[in-house]
């Protein structure tokens, strides 16, 4: 099996699964319970929060555990918008955000009366600080820009945006760091980030785990009510085992980054060069300012879904667009924003790598892909 859909979800580390199972067995009590078992669970939860905060370079009281990227993005964006609406109702994001961000802004716009500016990107998928600065207003209260695009892998100028926003103390800065964490370093403090989302299953943790960084002093209106858990920002009994699994996966992935980042980048570069040589293939991922694990390309003469299924029949697993939108529509809103043609935007394929893979994957993938394109092109004709 050649699994190349790691941006959709990663295979959990065996050690992470083992830790989850052990904690579930030994520390099943509710951390909010007053008895001994509850106190033990609460103590372990506190220690886990410290570990995650340390790994991310922030304070332990700035970490809120969530169920993943979608919840984290919703809590950050809606929570910030509703808590600060008295200062203004203008919000800014980009056209290439993840659906959990774009749909959240659309809801705030269409249902709750906020005004949203959607920043364009250039032909390589980059947001520019100059364009952002032009759109800032006295009533702007939130800017949300992803760190790494989930479809083409472009790295946005988060440090520069954060520096720009230092001159605007009433504007909160949210970053969707789901695709970047443990693959593209990001210093939350240096980048002047107020809110930052991560998701456990993107770095070999478990589905249903995540965390939101909330800078000290930032006010959010909770989405979930009914309890005082997670700094009173996220009610509900905590998933102790899930959070500990997240902490372990984050630590292991960051260690893998230190050891294998150059190998991952080499695999990506060699794959992109091989793809460029192939007839009928258009590479959409730029070579510069891009995360090392994502490659996006299009084969306009072949339907993307057909090619995905062909590769799957040969035990090679890739995807189209993002996993959250691939079943709803075949067109890539990211590629459309990059001014790609409809043929290119509807035929895009995403290959996403992990640190577990080696250069040996290149030859069999290219060989099988080439065979598939030739066969399917004939069928399409």
What does this structure look like?
The protein is α/β, with parallel strands linked by helices and 381 residues long. It is 41% helix and 13% strand. It has helices at residues 14-26, 36-56, 69-83, 99-110, 129-135, 158-165, 229-232, 240-277, 304-313, 333-337, 342-345, 362-380, and strands spanning 2-3, 63-66, 90-94, 115-119, 140-144, 172-176, 195-199, 210-214, 282-283, 294-298, 316-317, 348-352. The strands form 3 sheets. The chain has a 7-stranded mixed beta sheet, with helices on both faces. A 3-stranded antiparallel beta sheet has the order 9-10-12. A two-stranded parallel ribbon has the order 1-11. Helix 6 links the parallel strand 5 and strand 6. Helix 9 packs across helix 12 (362-380). The chain is globular, with a radius of gyration of 21 Å. The model has no long low-confidence stretch (mean pLDDT 94).
Keywords:
41% helix; 12 strands; 381 residues; globular; seven-stranded mixed beta sheet
Q: Classify the beta-strand content into a percent band.
A: 5-15%
User: Runs with pLDDT <50, length 5+?
Assistant: none
Overall mean pLDDT score?
94
The radius of gyration computed from the alpha-carbon positions, rounded to a whole number of angstroms, is 21 Å
Biggest sheet overview: 7 strands, mixed
With strands numbered from the N-terminus, the spatial order across the biggest sheet is 2-8-7-6-5-3-4
């Amino acid at each position: 099996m050649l699994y190349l859909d790691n941006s959709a979800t990663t295979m959990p580390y065996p050690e992470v699964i083992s830790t989850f199972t052990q904690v579930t067995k030994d520390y099943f009590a509710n951390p909010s319970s007053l008895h001994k078992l509850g106190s033990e669970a609460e103590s372990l939860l506190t220690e886990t929060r410290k570990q995650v905060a340390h790994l991310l370079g922030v304070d332990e009281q700035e970490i809120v555990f969530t169920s993943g990227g979608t919840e984290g993005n919703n809590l950050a964006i809606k929570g910030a918008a509703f808590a600060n609406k008295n200062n203004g109702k203008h919000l800014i994001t980009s056209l290439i955000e993840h659906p959990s961000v774009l749909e959240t802004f659309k809801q705030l716009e269409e249902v709750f009366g906020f005004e949203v500016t959607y920043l364009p990107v250039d032909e390589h998928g980059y947001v520019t600080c100059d364009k952002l600065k032009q759109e800032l207003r006295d009533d702007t209260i939130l800017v949300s820009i992803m760190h790494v695009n989930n479809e083409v892998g472009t790295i946005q100028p988060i440090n520069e945006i954060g520096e720009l926003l230092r001159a605007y103390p009433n504007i909160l800065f949210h970053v969707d760091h789901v695709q970047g964490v443990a693959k593209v370093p990001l210093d939350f403090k240096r980048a002047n980030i107020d809110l930052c989302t991560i998701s456990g299953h993107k770095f070999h943790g478990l589905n249903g785990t995540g965390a939101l960084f909330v800078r000290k002093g930032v006010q959010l209106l909770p989405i979930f009510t009914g309890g005082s858990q997670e700094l009173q920002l996220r009610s509900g009994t905590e998933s102790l085992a899930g959070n500990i699994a997240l902490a372990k996966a984050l630590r292991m992935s960051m260690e893998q980054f230190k050891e294998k980042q150059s190998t991952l980048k080499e695999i990506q570069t060699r794959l992109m060069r091989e793809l460029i040589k192939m007839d009928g293939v258009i590479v959409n991922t730029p070579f510069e300012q891009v995360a090392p694990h994502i490659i996006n390309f299009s084969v306009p003469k072949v339907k993307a879904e057909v090619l995905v299924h062909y590769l799957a029949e040969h035990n090679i697993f890739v995807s189209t667009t993002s996993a959250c939108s691939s079943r709803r529509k075949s067109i890539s809103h990211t590629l459309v924003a990059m001014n790609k043609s409809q043929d290119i935007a509807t035929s895009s394929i995403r290959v996403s790598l992990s640190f577990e893979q080696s250069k040996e994957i290149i030859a069999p993938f290219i060989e099988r892909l080439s065979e598939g394109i030739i066969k399917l092109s004939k069928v399409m004709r």
